[in-house]
DUF2490 domain-containing protein
Amino acid sequence: MNRLRLLAATAAIVSAVLCAGAQETPRYDVFESTIPSDFQPRADIEFEFPLADDFSFILNNELRFRDNASRIDRNYLLGAFSWETCDYFSLDAGYIFQSILNIGDVEYQREWQYRHRVYLDLKAQIELDDWKLSLTERPLVNLRPWADDIHDPKAEWLIRSKLKVDYDIPKTELTPYAFFELSNTLNTVDYGGGPFVDRLRFCLGIKWETSDFNSIELYYYFDIRNSRDVSYTTGSSGIYDIYLNKERQYLHILGISFNFGWD
């Protein structure tokens, strides 16, 4: 009889532990959706100041629009140092101050959010007659003071790879180009599903050297953007439901760039 009581008590304890563990295990649901495509034009102006042989400082300001060009999306202010180490390799290091306009459901919820980006460009290139082929690797980090490391990481690390081809049309000042760029996250928040490809970009553009110190670029981007949003519901015992929403959006981007440089 004592043995039966001991077995019954043991079974009750094991059952209670298993039930408690089941209650503490959060529910984890993953959803996938596609956001309507958008037209997001942009324009920027850039100045390059020589500091020494093959070493210069770059200042750039870019304004972007969204919602089919109906409102301002963000403004980027960039400062960078560029060093052309040889004919085949160059190195850029820069900082970008990003001002992003968020608009809620009502007008008074409109607010600017600010974040900081630090990046490093490692570029290798070769020239074959009028053709130029280049590969650029850009590790970067976005620092977001407003993030909570629960829904968004405060320090978002990414690496971007760009393969580009340029063709210098003989006896003209025109240089058409095309490139493909892949952007990959290196860290995510808990339950974010791990690193993922957050952007694929396809580009066609043309550069016009209007003078020895000025050029104008026109370009078109087709972007495939992937994003992830993690949300939680909590009860008295803590988190019990976790939702990961994977979103995809197709963007059409038309841009113009004005560049000024001095030897």
